[in-house]
């Protein structure tokens, strides 16, 4: 090796890290994995870990079923005891045995009264006065009216019928056929059934998100997940608010791929190989076959299973923190130099908002740096020979 080569290699070893590049090298991503801000030497860094995509990890990630709604609200069950509520429309029919009673005549022995339950939960009935209906079943309301009429009417009997259940409505709005107040039946009804009553979603299930608001609790799930996972198709309750949002799932590709941009899934499912293909694949001249990465905020259960409890707790101690919905930062690495990666990659799913990063090969930075330092001294023609000597 001549003196020029030695000088250039020395310069490379001391200054190659300063060469401009489209993101970090594979070695830099791996180096920072599992380290705290103090260990890295920078403040407020995001603590993450790297997991190799192999048969086990791909299977674990693909088999995970999100349970955002059932975990947040519980799946529910029967409707329980149905009671009268404010705004309900009731039909009260009063019968009398005699023809000259309070509610009977020679032509009819019954009287029908249409009532609306007022904000105080009561409604007025002639000769009875204010009757408290709110919180009572139809039978309890019937018995209350009957007891009040025993000494006033002639052998009375009463039937209370529900004609409208304003207190048992569910609001469905957003990207559905027609936003509406959906009245609940006396049988349990699920989210999918209620959305169907509102005309169904206007977009495909894989790009429709369902948000359920119940009291002070809020939960969001992909409609596709609700359809495929029965435990997520929970039962709704009176007063629930359901909002359906059309939000096409996308992922972002960066680095040494031929296309760097945000890309829509355009399909029900997408694996990592298909995601790379949608970006045109890696650029042969610069791509690092061992450096295909997926940056993701992953579900806590998945991260704990991948890392193991001990490693997971260690990462928490190093500063790994969840996002607003409890997911943790994780980086998946796919080594495309292994033949089985073409099989494993087919089973590893891409999720919405993932960042797929294709790392460049370290020699790219070497060539860039040698070109930079060689030109001023008039030895650019020898750069390729130096690279060969250095890399061989």
TrEMBL record:
The keyword Signal applies. Coiled coil: none annotated. Residues 81-161 form the Polysaccharide export protein N-terminal domain. Residues 170-218 form the Soluble ligand binding domain. InterPro entries: Poly_export, Poly_export_N, Soluble_ligand-bd. Keywords: Signal. Pfam families: Poly_export, SLBB. PANTHER family: POLYSACCHARIDE EXPORT PROTEIN GFCE-RELATED. This is Polysaccharide export outer membrane protein.
